[in-house]
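R.M. (postdoc): so does anyone remember the format we settled on? I'll just put the structure tokens first.
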């Protein structure tokens, strides 16, 4: 059996890195995507290889349709990509009353348009193999809303509708499409946003998640064991939603 290949967008970040390491541990060849920071993706690839896994790094802006397609065509020259984890996302917070059009558009460009630019070209090659896993990383903000994050919540909530629709389209081909919606996760994104006391008040579990706790759910959804889980939004939020 040929080795399955996974593309993890935003793979050089905290959650993305944990997802890449766990998929590699399952014997998947992991394509670690970065936007600008290729060096960080390459250092993760080195760590995965040192641990006995298989990986490569790639860099492109998921918000740019042309460069995304060119990068994906180059990857598809080596065969289909059967696992896609749409993890790339940014936040640029402001109350909507004070939010610029640029803040609104860029956040949606990366999370929502990026989902289309990356996933769409991979679907037909994946369908021909009659096996595939598509997982998008969303946020509890898409379910509950969050002050200052109307743009981020809108982008991530849109992934829920797109994923549920795509699940219906692809299910007969052995392809599942699901969403993982983390709450507060340890790492760079949460560090500047939430004080420890605020986390205790917000999260019933009283703490932030580790990136590995989020990655474990993604890992399961990408496995053979999750073949009948489809079109779902799974919260990994310590009881917030």
């Amino acid at each position: 059996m040929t080795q399955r290949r996974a593309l993890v967008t935003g793979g050089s970040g905290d959650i993305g890195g944990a997802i890449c390491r766990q998929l590699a541990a399952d014997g998947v060849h992991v394509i670690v995507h970065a936007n600008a920071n290729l060096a960080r993706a390459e250092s993760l690839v080195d760590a995965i290889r040192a641990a006995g896994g298989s990986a490569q790094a790639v860099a492109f802006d998921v918000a740019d349709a042309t460069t995304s397609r060119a990068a994906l065509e180059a990857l598809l020259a080596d065969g289909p990509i059967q696992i896609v984890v749409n993890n790339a996302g940014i936040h640029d917070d402001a109350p909507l009353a004070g939010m610029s059009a640029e803040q609104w558009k860029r956040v949606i460009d990366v999370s929502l348009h990026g989902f289309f630019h990356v996933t769409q070209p991979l679907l037909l090659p994946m369908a021909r193999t009659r096996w595939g896993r598509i997982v998008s990383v969303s946020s509890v903000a898409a379910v509950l809303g969050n002050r200052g994050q109307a743009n981020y919540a809108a982008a991530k909530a849109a992934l829920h509708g797109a994923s549920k629709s795509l699940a219906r389209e692809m299910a007969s081909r052995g392809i599942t499409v699901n969403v993982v919606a983390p709450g507060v996760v340890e790492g760079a994104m949460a560090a500047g946003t939430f004080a420890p006391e605020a986390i205790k008040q917000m999260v019933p579990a009283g703490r932030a998640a580790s990136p590995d706790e989020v990655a474990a759910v993604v890992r399961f959804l990408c496995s053979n064991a999750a073949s009948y889980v489809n079109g779902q939004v799974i919260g990994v939020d310590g009881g917030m939603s």
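R.M.: ...and that's the designed sequence above, right after the tokens. Also worth knowing: The chain has a mean pLDDT of 96. The longest strand covers residues 175-182.
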